[in-house]
Amino acid sequence: MSYVLPPPPQAKLPVAGSDAFFPVRRIFCVGRNYEAHAREMGNDPDREPPFFFTKPADAAIATPCTLPYPSLTEDLHHEIELVIAIGKGGADIPASRVHEHIWGASVGIDFTRRDLQAAAKDARRPWDWSKAFDNSAPIAPIVPMADVASLSDARIWLAVNGETRQDANIADLIWSVDEHIATLSEGMTLAPGDLIMTGTPAGVAACQTGDVLTGGVDGIATLEVTIGPRA
């Protein structure tokens, strides 16, 4: 087989405690999956069906890392999230069998160009330009499920320069991991290598150049991201 251009490198993340890598195929993100965050963004937190958006696979960046402050924004926000790694594909997966498809878990940050998102909402346009940009998904090493304490009850938190900004429990998810992955599989056939960012709790706020962000999901993983100057 020949290509007219060199194929891009495989997007990947390290596996915790190993020299191996997890190949990233796609990144799906769940919107407004914590009631308090829905309220802080001015939305109704009622338990409506989950909705999803995507990031490109190469938005996934291994941590610890230093990321340049992104272009086109003056209002970069952090959103700490539990991340699920799919190891077995499938469509129309029952919630009761979702665990059979999960390879591992981690923690990541869904960086958002909030000013661009607000402008898109006002114009009733898609959010892509505010979510799917370079380096917008720094993620800690993927932890195999055998080493994951819980996907239903664990503290999730983020601090900026040592000051805690986001602090909640994944038990507060409106749609549990099993439920929202089952729903996602009704509309897309999941495949090995897919990542799912499961939503962020309240406390999202702006980051500045020089900020050091630390965060984690207890019993799973922690991360550190430094915001560098614009490229």
TrEMBL record:
It holds the Pfam family FAA_hydrolase. InterPro entries: Fumarylacetoacetase-like_C (IPR011234), Fumarylacetoacetase_C_sf (IPR036663). It comes from the Bacteria. Residues 27-227 form the Fumarylacetoacetase-like C-terminal domain. Keywords: Hydrolase, Metal-binding. One of its GO terms (molecular function) is acetylpyruvate hydrolase activity. This is Fumarylacetoacetate hydrolase family protein. The lineage of its organism: Bacteria, Pseudomonadati, Pseudomonadota, Alphaproteobacteria, Rhodobacterales.
